[in-house]
Write a structure and sequence with these properties.
Potassium Channel Kv1.1, Chain A, ubiquitin-like ligase-substrate adaptor activity, four-stranded antiparallel β-sheet, 16 helices, 29 strands, kelch repeat, 3 domains, Serine Threonine Protein Phosphatase 5, Tetratricopeptide repeat, alpha+beta, BTB domain-containing protein, BTB-kelch_protein, Neuraminidase, SKP1/BTB/POZ_sf, elongated
Length: 565
């Protein structure tokens, strides 16, 4: 027998439209909701269909299940009316004036779809002036995702947030939750100290008891020495608290004895990580043909593209590059006429370069390495001689100082940090290209020989991944190289790896997420814009997106930037 199945595509809309009209005419309504004397008629079936709260009320043994009137307490009538209308129409207007009361009422009535929409709306309204209030509101109503996002927003805009009226009204636990985070966007730790003191000073009589509990989260070893002496050491609350004075002494020891910093490592000596940022490679200076570059560009790994950024104040090739606290340092180099002792730093947050304290010695073709928040400028060339001298820079004091000399003179040397030791790798001593490697112990202020590489290399590319040192390319005195090797410090031995696809010297190398990138350089006949990457897992090289400019004798490092869609 033939069967026709009819499906009314407008059935649900027509039914709810009709039920809504009956409600507006008070037809077949079987319940009246009462809030502070205000009355609202509805249908139990509709309310129970959209609200587990009403479903439990009308299907249980509660008195309300048998009654035609229900009195509700601690609820806003206008919000209730809006939500009841929503159960009939599926449409609700959420705006900045009603979102909080709607969310509260929807939470009480267990109307999670409206509650979630309110949270979604609040996410779009986050601002430094209101995010702390939204954190508290989300916490009260167990909106976990909104709470997390609001908390991250506050940390991402910490400098602006602590200027808001809401900040000084926070509870102790709320302040501690913010300043104890390892992830926070602040220009310096001085900002965190000032935030703590401004919160305490708002109600000093009742809040000074929290000073040590909060100050222990401030990374005092990382504030500038001037700030430490002028603002921390002179603070009355700090001077009158023995535990705070201990933290001050810890900070002073860290700054006064940089060679012993490895002995004072704890969370207070680690810079906070940034939030809301993406990791990018920044390619700095270099040269091509007869031109030395001041131009820079960044590589967005996620988009696989290179983007120009601010140029340096000076042209530089054969420079050294280092990063501390997301500040990129361009050190020394060659400008086409002279070897340089000048140094400038790049702030990704503002896309600006600033000249800072110069090296004590002109250096091009130097190696650079970082340990214990100190930058080491290793060897190089001063315009007359290959150098064996080494200088150390402390960003906290903006000063360079000399440390122990290398055992060998090294120009076009590369530097790296492995297991808190600094390695000077290969180079050119004025007579031969070197395979030798030296290792520097910061505590002993002493260089010692390490196992030599398998090949002589100057101007090689060097990086460290998982306590393994990787070296690729360079020049052996006769040719630019493709060869690639790695060093295992536990075995003190070098192991050969698959060669690069292209010959490269004067390039630079960085590593991220299991990939090693070889960037720019010279192949023996021309400067390169090309980039290739090595998969540690696959043990193979692959092509990657080329830079916008050819760059030999380039410096490259990783930093974090806020990338706008």
């Amino acid at each position: 027998m033939d069967v026709l199945i009819h499906h009314g595509i407008h059935h649900t809309n027509q039914a709810f439209s009709a039920i809504g009209q009956m409600k507006s005419r008070d037809e077949l309504c079987d319940v009246e909701l009462i809030v502070d004397g205000n009355r609202l008629k509805a249908h139990k079936l509709i309310l129970a269909s959209f609200s587990p709260y009403f479903h439990a009320m009308f299907t249980s043994q509660l008195a309300e299940s048998q009654s035609n009137t229900v009195t509700l307490h601690d609820i806003d009538f206008e919000a209730l009316k809006t939500l009841v209308d929503y159960t009939y129409t599926s449409v609700i207007d959420i705006n900045q004036h009603n979102v909080q009361v709607l969310l509260s009422t929807a939470s009480m009535l267990q109307m999670n779809c409206v509650r979630d929409s309110c949270c979604k709306f609040l996410k779009t309204q986050l601002h430094p002036s209101n995010c702390l209030g939204i954190i508290a509101f989300a916490d009260t109503h167990s909106c976990n995702e909104l709470h997390q996002l609001s908390h991250e927003f506050a940390l991402g805009h910490f400098k602006e947030v602590i200027q808001s009226e809401e900040y000084v009204l926070l509870s102790y636990n709320q302040v501690e939750s913010l300043i104890s985070s390892d992830v926070m966007n602040v220009d310096s730790e001085e900002c965190v100290f000032q935030a703590v003191m401004s919160w305490i000073d708002h109600d000093r009589a009742n809040r000074q008891k929290y000073v040590v509990n909060l100050i222990q989260h401030v990374r005092l070893p990382l504030v500038s020495r001037d700030f430490l002496l002028l603002h921390v050491e002179t603070n009355e609350l700090i001077r009158n608290c023995n535990e705070c004075k201990d933290l001050l002494i810890e900070a002073m020891r860290y700054q006064l004895w940089p060679e012993k910093r490895s002995l004072y490592q704890n969370f207070r000596t680690q810079y906070r990580r940034l939030c809301g940022t993406s990791k990018v490679a920044i390619s700095i200076g270099g040269g091509s043909l007869f031109s030395i570059h001041s131009e820079c560009e960044i590589y967005d790994i996620n988009r696989d593209s290179w983007i120009p950024v601010a140029s340096m104040a000076e042209r530089r090739a054969r420079l050294g590059v280092a990063v501390i606290n997301n500040t990129v340092y361009a050190i020394g180099g060659y400008d086409g006429g002279s070897d340089l002792n000048s140094v400038e730093c790049y702030l990704p947050q503002t896309n600006t370069w600033t000249l800072i304290q110069s090296l004590g010695t002109r250096r091009s073709g130097l190696g650079v390495a970082v340990t214990s928040n100190l930058i080491f400028a290793i060897g190089g060339y001063d315009g007359a001689l290959c150098l064996n001298s080494v200088e150390r820079y402390d960003p906290l004091t903006n000063q360079w100082s000399c440390v122990a000399d290398l055992n060998s003179r090294r120009r076009y040397v590369r530097g790296a940090t492995l297991n808190d030791c600094i390695y000077a790798i290969g180079g050119f001593d004025g007579g031969i290209h070197l395979a030798s490697v030296e290792c520097y112990d910061l505590n002993l202020n002493q260089w010692k020989q390490s196992a030599s590489m398998l090949a002589r290399r100057s101007s090689a590319g060097v990086t460290v991944v998982d306590n393994i040192l990787y070296v690729c390319g360079g020049n052996d005195g006769s040719n630019c190289l493709r060869s690639f090797e790695k060093y295992d410090p536990e075995k003190d031995e070098w192991i050969s790896l698959p060669p690069m696809n292209s010959k490269r010297s004067t390039h630079d190398v960085i590593a991220v997420d299991g990939w090693i990138y070889a960037i720019g350089g010279n192949d023996g006949s021309a400067s390169l814009s090309s980039v290739e990457k090595y998969s540690i897992a696959a043990n193979k090289w692959y092509p990657s997106s080329a830079m916008n400019m050819r760059r030999s004798s380039v410096g490259v490092a990783f930093c974090e930037v806020l990338l706008h869609e």
